[in-house]
């Protein structure tokens, strides 16, 4: 059930749970701090979104950003951003590029890539 | 339009990035975490807040704090694109024990941590060390020297911090890019020895 796009008036100084329509903040599993997010194609329904969700989708239109970066740019707490992202993903307005599961890519490989990258960049 | 939120093309990740890795930069208040991150980050460091509203698990902490159901804690972070497919995020993590929820979030999936210490205030690092160890996060110690004259022998630091023999200790200046990158490289090499 969704009540998106209704009942939102002035949003300047509202408490986070108002922005999320009182939804329980989801646990971190779905949207980790470094989960990469971008806007889905087609913004036809964007106009119907409330200001926070619309700002979030518009920010994500430019390319991929991590959940933490989105929170930093928008200026809302991570927990609130997670609720909004969860909503928007459910509506098909944003998509994620999940962190590669560790089973598929071992820490050894990641560490080697990190080391190579640091040495190339700063060496 | 909300393009005011971001001002340049470097805000976004390259299209090919597939892997987002995370390293924590931890340490007590004012030890230089934010400076360190700012020195290495390719984007202006961002600050965000974690809200702790799910009081259920930590209800004891909130008892007696009348009307206060949420707490926020700020964390600073930066970004380093290290290859076409890999981006590394550096998260500056507050060292207070009560921010358990933040730590769970930070620790999840983190490769390791660089513990920044101030050679003049070593004892202030103990609560942070306890936290890092309790989450099982492997770490290296970066001794943030603002002044060469502060230099202390590594042995002395090791003993004062009661480090395990294999925990690396590296001197660094959080204001200096090469020095900060060197500390990070020391950490990553150490992490490699633990996984091989």
UniProtKB/TrEMBL annotation, chain A:
A Pfam family matched in the record: DUF742
UniProt superkingdom: Bacteria
Name of the featured protein: DUF742 domain-containing protein
Automatic annotation (TrEMBL), chain B:
Keyword entries, A-Z: GTP-binding, Hydrolase, Nucleotide-binding
Gene Ontology molecular function: any one: GTP binding
Organism: Streptomyces lonarensis
Family matches, as SUPFAM superfamilies: P-loop containing nucleoside triphosphate hydrolases
Entry keyword Nucleotide-binding: yes
Name by which UniProt lists this protein: ATP/GTP-binding protein
Sequence similarity: Belongs to the GPN-loop GTPase family.
Pfam families with a match to the protein in the record: ATP_bind_1 (PF03029)
């Amino acid at each position: 059930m969704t009540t998106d796009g209704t009942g939102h008036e002035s949003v300047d100084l509202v408490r986070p749970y108002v922005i999320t329509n009182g939804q329980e903040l989801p646990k971190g599993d779905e949207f980790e701090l470094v989960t990469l997010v971008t806007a889905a194609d087609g913004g036809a329904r964007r106009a119907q979104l409330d200001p926070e969700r619309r700002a979030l989708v518009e920010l994500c239109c430019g390319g991929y950003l991590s959940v933490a970066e989105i929170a930093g740019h928008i200026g809302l707490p991570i927990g609130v951003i997670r609720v909004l992202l969860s909503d928007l993903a459910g509506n098909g307005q944003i998509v994620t590029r999940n962190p590669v599961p560790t089973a598929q890519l071992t820490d050894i490989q990641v560490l080697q890539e990190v080391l190579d990258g640091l040495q190339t960049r700063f060496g | 339009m909300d393009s005011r939120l971001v001002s340049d093309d470097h805000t976004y990740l390259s299209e090919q990035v597939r892997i987002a890795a995370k390293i924590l930069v931890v340490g007590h208040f004012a030890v230089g975490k934010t400076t360190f991150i700012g020195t290495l980050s390719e984007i202006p460091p961002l600050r965000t807040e974690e809200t702790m509203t799910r009081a259920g698990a930590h209800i004891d902490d909130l008892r007696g704090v009348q009307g206060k159901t949420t707490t926020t804690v700020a964390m600073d972070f930066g970004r380093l694109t290290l290859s076409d497919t890999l981006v590394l995020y550096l998260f500056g993590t507050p060292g207070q024990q009560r921010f358990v929820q933040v730590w769970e979030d930070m620790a999840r999936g983190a490769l390791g941590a660089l513990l920044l210490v101030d050679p003049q205030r070593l004892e202030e690092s103990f609560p942070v060390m306890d936290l890092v160890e309790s989450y099982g996060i492997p770490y290296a110690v970066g001794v943030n020297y603002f002044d060469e004259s502060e230099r202390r022998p590594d042995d002395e630091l090791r003993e004062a911090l009661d480090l395990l023999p294999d925990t690396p200790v590296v001197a660094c200046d959080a204001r200096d890019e090469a020095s900060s990158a060197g500390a990070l490289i020391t950490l990553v090499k150490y992490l490699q020895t633990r996984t091989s």
